[in-house]
Amino acid sequence: MPVYLDHAATTPISAPALAALTSVIARSGNPSSLHGSGRRARATVEQARETIAKAAGAHPTEVIFTSGGTEADNLAVKGLFWSRRATDPARTRILVSSVEHAAVQDTVEWLEKHEGAEAVWLPVDAAGVLDLSALEKELADGGASSVALLSCMWANNEVGSVQPIAEVVALADTYGIPVHSDAVQAFGSVSVNFKDSGLAAMSISAHKIGGTVGVGALLLGRAVKLTPVLHGGGQERSVRSGTLDTAGIAAFAAAAADATTNLAAENERIAGLRDAVIAAVRDLVPEAVLRGVDPAENPAGRLPGNAHFTFPGCEGDSLLFLLDMAGIESSTGSACTAGVPRPSHVLLAMGLDEDTARGAQRFSLGHTSSQEDVDAFVAALLDAHARAKQAGMAGHKSSIETASTRAAG
Q1: Percentage of the chain surpassing pLDDT 70?
Q2: Pairing relation of β-strands 118-122 and 306-310?
Q3: pLDDT tens for each residue of 178-233
Q4: What is the pTM of this model?
């Protein structure tokens, strides 16, 4: 069996989630139907809604089921933008961190192109953490009245840095600006409480915490008005129409309860494995650079399962494939278009040049990770890195222009 170090992409289904899925999926019933099977399905959905709400620190009515994090992000950003602009046509600006997941970044760019939105890409520091002074200046300069919403992820999916959500919400709240946070990576990995956060909306996903792919939720404040993206049967407070995946939702709830019940102890265990990975990379490849917040300096500032490095003079894709051949599954955290290696917009926003960013490799651990996995990784790394570095960088260079780099230029 390969050693799986890509839990940030998706994590294996947990035992409680698998049990819930197999128990429910064999039964028929649309939760919107009024007969017995429908009522039984509805009861399963509502029980799951309560479980997820408890795990996320929300009220059950604030849980809007979606097909995953991407849909939840689209619903939040588009829905808040349209709703706020309908109330006041002057509200056309969207404040957004420059290291957002593509589900947020591409949504904002689509709104710019098709809906007359104006994106304001907020800078981050060298660790990928939002620059609060830049946000404060943006709001204090008199432009707050034209802001429709602010979107800032809870924790970055590539480098694992945790964002100062409490401070972001406090600044935005002064001006009455609703804040959305993509908490897909954070939920189930660190303590997340929707009510205490003051957020207007928050996105979470099942398959990142041990549930199934294709299920997620948008946590939406009860007083927050949102324009629907999907129209149909009026399910989910008439915010998100569509027949609900009862079995997937049941598995989501089981995974959420399992992930959050012993969160502190599991975080400590996984963080220990992550620290072992970091120590091994630094020992075997001293030139490699840890990206994101250093957990030795700020333990709470980084996701417990994330270790992200750049390897100078080494193409990330080459290292990925060589590790894969050795039975170690990791990720570059970057996109690849038409076979051309492309550096991550997150790393570029952090100030890295393209060649450095192209040497990225993300190792992410989760609930199935063990010391044996770390040992196998350590045994494979030195040879894989030597061969990848010998291959060098690709002969062609990409010239990338992203939303964040355009804003900085």
Answers
A1: 94
A2: unpaired
A3: 999 999 999 999 999 999 999 999 999 999 999 999 999 999 999 999 999 999 99
A4: 0.94
Question: How far is the C-alpha of 249 from the C-alpha of 244, rounded, in Å?
Answer: 8
CA distance 75 to 229: 6
Distance of CA 85 to the CA centre of its chain: 26
Sign of the dihedral defined by the CA atoms of residues 35, 41, 44, 48, in that order? negative
Tell me which amino acid residue 386 is: A
Question: What pLDDT shows up at residue 55?
Answer: 98
89 vs 113, 140, 168, 241, 259, CA distance in Å?
17, 21, 24, 26, 42
Taking 60 as the threshold, does the pLDDT of residue 253 lie above it? yes
Active site residue 336: yes
**Is-contact 177 169, C-beta < 8 A?**
no
Question: Of these residues, 296, 336, 340, 408, which one is catalytic?
Answer: 336
Average pLDDT (381-401) is 74
Distances in whole angstroms, Cα of residue 66 to Cα of each of 14, 165, 243: 20, 23, 10
In 206-266, beta strands by DSSP E: 216-220
Question: What tokens were used for 73?
Answer: 């992000």
Q: Which of 90, 171, 89 is nearest to 137 (CA)?
A: 171
**3-state SS, residue 95:** strand
Alpha helices in 26-89 (DSSP H): 36-56, 69-87
401, pLDDT greater than 70: no
